Amino acid sequence: MNSASLPGQSHEALLPPRQGEGWGGDGVKLAGTGYGIRPSYPHPPPSLPLEGGGGGGDACCIYSIPQRTAPTPSSRALLGLILALFALPMLIALGLYAMHWRPAAVASHGELVTPPRPLPANGLTSRDGHALGSAELRGRWLMVLAVPGPCDAGCLARIDETRRIQVALHRNMSRVGRLVLSDAPDPPLLAAAHAAPDLLLARPDGLWRELLADADAPHLYLVDPLGNLVMRYPPRPEPAGVKRDLERLLKFSWNG
Predict the structure, then answer these.
(1) What is the pLDDT, as a whole number, of residue 98?
(2) Which of 47, 49, 63, 103 gives 20 to 30 Å between its CA and that of 87?
């Protein structure tokens, strides 16, 4: 197919005409076919004769053929930016893997008791002589402070710290109780228990007594709602660390 082009013109494809319509306008009909080419000018074009004339039955529908344009520098930059955004996380991951970087494990501030040691629901006698049972010892977490001797200033400071940790838990403070174990409560310890009605003060027996035997200074332990000893702390634990341990335990605990 050969056709002549004039400067400043583009072309439109002419489809076969509909019944009762002619080619119309300026254009060239391709001999032996039902198609033709019409030039499109930015200004009124010169008159070009149609091959075979323009009459009834030769009209057609006209569709413009779009010209493909080359990508602009801005579109290339945008495409490159999108590809870089997709590739960047993978490159970072590969770099961290090549440097053998691993996320730090979440560590507790106390020593985890493995396996947890079950403690009985009896074996504790309150300061007024009645036995503590499941109602006081089960269904919530317990901060247990074992005091092996007289309660000195350091012992009183540990008791105060347990209270501040409990209050710092805000809406979860009711899920944590406090228990002090002592063989012979002295006046300072009795005064501290009297000033805090929620503080349980008990004389231990049986397996509970082992917590006193393991300590030569006031030691803090955590007991879960089922009565299992799960964590022990050094003589002077960091209160913020104990609080973080409790927050983590309370977050994933469903039974207390």
Answers:
(1) 83
(2) 103
CA distances from 229 to 41, 113, 134, 238 (A): 92, 7, 15, 19
**What is the SS3 assignment for 140?**
coil
> Would you state the structure tokens that stand for residue 254, as one six-digit string?
């469903």
Q: Is 154 part of any domain?
A: yes
Mean pLDDT of 12-31: 48
Instruction: Give residue 1's pLDDT.
Output: 45
Check the CA dihedral 92-93-99-104 and report its sign.
positive
**33 and 124 co-located in one domain:** no
pLDDT digits (tens, 9 = 90+) for 105-133: 556 678 888 899 999 888 888 888 888 88
CB neighbours of 9 closer than 8 A, spacing ≥ 6? 39, 40, 41, 45
Verify that 61 and 139 share a domain, yes or no.
no
Longest CA–CA span in the chain (Å) reads: 125
In this structure, which amino acid lies at residue 81? L
Q: Which two tokens stand for residue 212?
A: 């006193």
